[in-house]
Amino acid sequence: MPKLVDHEERRNHIAEATWRVILNQGMKGATVRNIAREAGLSLGALRHYFSTQDELLVFAMKLVKDRATERIQQIAMSDLPPKDKILNIMLELVPLDENKMAEMEVWFAFTFYTRHKNDVLDAQHDGIYAGMKKLIDYMDHHHMLRNNLDKEIETEKLYALIDGIAIHALLEPHRVNKERIKAVLSQHLDSICAEG
């Protein structure tokens, strides 16, 4: 009897192989041939799932985003106090562990690779700005923000903080470590929240 193949699992396996190739060889090394080899598949088998390199790259990056979104949704649905919930969501968006470090490195490599390719996934619309806007709106709705804050400016500041600290954590992981990231994000959250 032929072995049944879980096609979604196989597509995810190929996407994860793509991440490993990008981490080890950069975007230039992310050829269909190298990815097939990393995934342990023939070129024909890989092309059965992804007909073009761009289609494969888009799926691989979407999987990064989907996994982060799933983790964030679990936090959003938790019973944590509102401020802890917000902090934990922000911490999901920065590289605090080896897996998130790899996801972030792959995401930034992909972002720089696609910035001049308009027909590929627009990595600039990664959902982080929209997520920061939702966090600010959530804090406003729960009367957590200090009075007279400009919500648009605070959204932009939070977006810049998350992106900036993620890049610094990638470039200087010994200096911008887990404890420092938590301290910076906690202090920023304290600075925009009303006391009490």
From TrEMBL:
Domain HTH tetR-type residues, every copy: 8-68
Ranges annotated as DNA-binding: 31-50
Record keywords, A-Z: DNA-binding, Repressor, Transcription, Transcription regulation
A Pfam family recorded for this sequence: TetR_N
Keyword Transmembrane: no
Protein name: TetR/AcrR family transcriptional regulator
Lineage: Bacteria, Bacillati, Bacillota, Bacilli, Bacillales
